[in-house]
Write a structure and sequence with these properties.
This protein is of the alpha/beta class and 308 residues long. The chain is 51% helix and 11% strand. The chain contains 13 helices and six strands.
Amino acid sequence: MAGVSLPVLVGPTAVGKTAVALALARHWPLEVISADSRQVYRRLDIGTAKPTRRERTRVSHHGLDLVDPGQRYSAGRFAREAAGWLGEIAGRGRLPVVVGGTGLYVKALTEGLFLEPPLDPAQRRALEAWLAGLEPRELLRWAGRLDAGFRGGGRQRAARAIEVVLQSGRPLGWWQAAARAESFVAPWYVLLTAPRPVLRQRIGNRSEEMVRRGLIEEVAAVLTEGHPADAPGLDGIGIREAVEYLQGRRRRDTVAGAIALNTRRYAKRQETWFRHQLAGPVLALDATRPPEKLAEEIAAAWRGRTEA
């Protein structure tokens, strides 16, 4: 896939990426590759704001419903699997379009892939059981001791850093640098933006709609499967607030507000990341306009690039 020019539609959560991608399908014979670290989890459709079944019928999506809650899914795995989807989509004569807000996933795909070290399955299961018993503070302390390059993060990131060092003898950063593949795509970024008050309103509306659609019931059903409340897939914004309610640590009428608050904070981090981390040409567009108008502008700009 080296050098393949690829549209990559990015922006903060709730800015309207899915609507624009669907509108683009009127201009291009496209298939979407979702670069969203939360939408990989099955049975968490409402809490991860996945495209609806109807939307997925209109436009084929890849990168959704890949693993069960409780399983880890890495940026490296996404990049390898996405490279395969790119080839399959192109082989069908269609245009792959990457859509998502997880910067690490986008970066792993567009700037090169890294291979995971060989990890023994039996040892991995035993290690995961030990890690699951550690308190968050202890887990972070172990990660910092074992991997000098560990810069913090959530439980999942710390556990992965520990796992790689203990099973391979080398930190994750070494593997990323040593095994980075030479193949890469040439991204053409479309960055959707919106004024802070507009994005704030959209986030608030979506948070309330998630609860109305059955977010709490969806999360309760997954928890009955026996997954720990802080398991991968259940520790993200929109899910963990529902978990807090189900554990009696929050009132039901505060769930939507807490989701909105935490999502706004996350969106701000996304905006900062996209301002500084996109390595390639960027078309920035004001997403307060209708998706159809944005799609027309994107399609015209793409034609200008490909016909030049």
